[in-house]
Amino acid sequence: MTAPINTPDFARQAVTVLHLDAGQTELTGDSIPPWRRFPYWTFSFCMAGQGRIDFQADAAQFLSRPGHVSIGPADRAYRGAVISKTPGRYQWIHAQYEMFGFLDPLTCLELPHVLPRELSLKILKLGGQIINITRNRELAIFRQTVDLHYLGIALLKLLSDRFKWAGVPKTPPGALEALKPAMDALKLNIGHKVDIPALARSVAMSRPTFQRRFKQALRTTPYAFIEKLRMRAAATKLCRSDMSIDALSAELGYCDRFQFSKSFKRFYGLGPAQYRKNYFGLFDR
Prior knowledge:
Number of helices: 9
Order of helices and strands: EEEEEEEHHHHHHHHH
Shape: globular
């Protein structure tokens, strides 16, 4: 077993578990789910059968192995197909985290497509605990929220103790913390026009300095960052609420549903109506 790897200082900051749930799925040999692009990371434990997972973006392909966990990164288009005669049975976990209020810690880990067996079995056990909590109707919502948070942190720790941290922003932790007020303002005003001068003032920086440090830390511009936040919020609401597309586009700050639909299709590969038709209720099962 590989010795635990020290977690970088910046990753020891408080992590928020934005979303965590689990369930079980069975696929037959001739069923090929449509291309999927979720705002959540997907950890799928192959309990029976054998499948193939394709990534649309980079044409990568790998086999899922019985008794092992396969990983589908957030915001990557992928699909799975069972290629054995045995129906495929999977237990899955959907997870989403934030660190410093705006970083996804899982993107900073060198994670393989398929996890080692002993680690996969630990994640399978966590998945069973998550299922028990989400299906326990007698559990108070506060207790459920706290328990899911700790299980989410346990999942992240299993991964961070085993795999190397890579892609870590080269900006010192203090500089990341200095940007947090601007990140909070962006999230609180997700449906408003991005005001770069106001964001720069919120962190006591000039506009050029703010834009330079923002790109160094997040490897993207404030405009691209808010677009990603909007798309993730849109995908979640389309899957978990019956809000109309017109109302959703207005809430997220688009001029009309056509502008919103164009942006959503560019990001997820499907228009919002089709995305809802395919995935409504998926995360509540």
